[in-house]
Amino acid sequence: MGLGNLPAEVAASSDAVARYAARNPDAPHRINIAEQGLAYDPAQRKVGITVVGAGMAGLLAAAMLRNQCDKVVEAAEELPNNHSAVLRFRSSVVADTLGIPFKKVKALKATEAWRNPIADAVAYSQKVTGIATARSILSANGAAERFIAPPDLVSRMAELVTAPIEYGSPFPFWIGDLPGPVISTIPMPILAKALNYPRLDKMDFRSRSGVNVIGVVPSVDLYASLYIPCPDSYAARISMTGSRVMIEVYGKGMDKLLKADQQGRTDFVRNCLRSLGIEEAEFFNVAVKEQQYAKILPIDEGERRRFIMWASERNIYSLGRFATWRPGLLLDDLVNDVRVIQRLIEDSGASYPHRKKD
């Protein structure tokens, strides 16, 4: 498989990528690939790492560690691409690392006033997590610089992976001794149970499911998020990313939307668009997507770190928000996390079991 849009023979070595970038100065993202060292070089390949999960975290790891990754295993029958959330990044680190250009925009944020700032923050927390505490909407007003990923980001990330992606292949963590290092994106409670973690009863995992209602509004080009604390409104957050609308719903509104017919869903989207000042706009492709882990709540930090260390001692390294159970983790943070895992594997005495000795 070639490196992104590069010809396969060019992507075969880092020197070739560098020469190609030099000949194509109008392709800055390709130059970034050469600078970041993501080119696939068979001579430098060290087999051994298995990445579990072909979501965004898993694909990022497999792309960044293209010379170390042996394979990617994915339980779904095809590339999941189930990331229905807004693909907004706070920095360009993912774009720069992968060589996939993102669009820099000014994104607007606002809270639809309900009672007062404190009551609104507590009500919003109750709405999305089920727990009354202060949420970040206290500062959710104004404009911020954001980087918007292309809608086909997941498939483009998969193109950067040189190792085979085995679909329909849940990883058997219970097999005992692993053949090599494993980077797991499986949610922590599921992995801990699969590994028979002895302190699982000490970990109070709490999460909330939700649904994302998505659609396309061709006449709109807007980057904005509106937070809605009012308990009587099913919508918790309405986001526009260019022409794409996404509405997050939790609690009592979920069943209503899941059971609603297409007309009911259409009316819901229309009312949400009006909250953004978008009147009488045509929209298409309205869909409702369920999310098992729409929101996760923190667990005891000591227990969280203890499990991650325990698993890494068994050559299993967790990556991603759900795998490390960090509610505030951003996609931007994953680049550094992959590099940390790489160093941990390389520093361990059992890395790359199939690597040839010099």
Describe the structure.
With 358 residues, the protein is α/β, with parallel strands linked by helices. The chain contains 13 helices and 13 strands. An 8-stranded mixed beta sheet has the order 3-5-4-9-10-11-8-12, with helices on both faces. β1 (49-52), α4 (56-64) and β2 form a beta-alpha-beta unit. α2 (14-23) runs antiparallel to α3. It is globular.
CATH top level assignment of the largest domain: Alpha Beta
Number of helices: 13
> What share of the residues does DSSP label as strand, in percent?
15-25%
Largest sheet features: 8 strands, mixed
In total, the number of domains comes to 2
CATH homologous superfamily (4th level) name of the largest domain: NAD(P)-binding Rossmann-like Domain
**CATH fold assignment of the largest domain:** Rossmann fold
Order of helices and strands: HHHEHEEHEHEHEEHEEEEHHEHEHH
The quaternary state of the protein chains shown equals: single chain
Which residues sit in consecutive blocks of at least 5 with pLDDT less than 50?
1-40, 350-358
Radius of gyration, CA atoms, in whole angstroms: 22 Å
Number of extended strands = 13
> What is the SS-derived class?
alpha/beta
**What's the architecture of the largest domain, going by CATH?**
3-Layer(aba) Sandwich
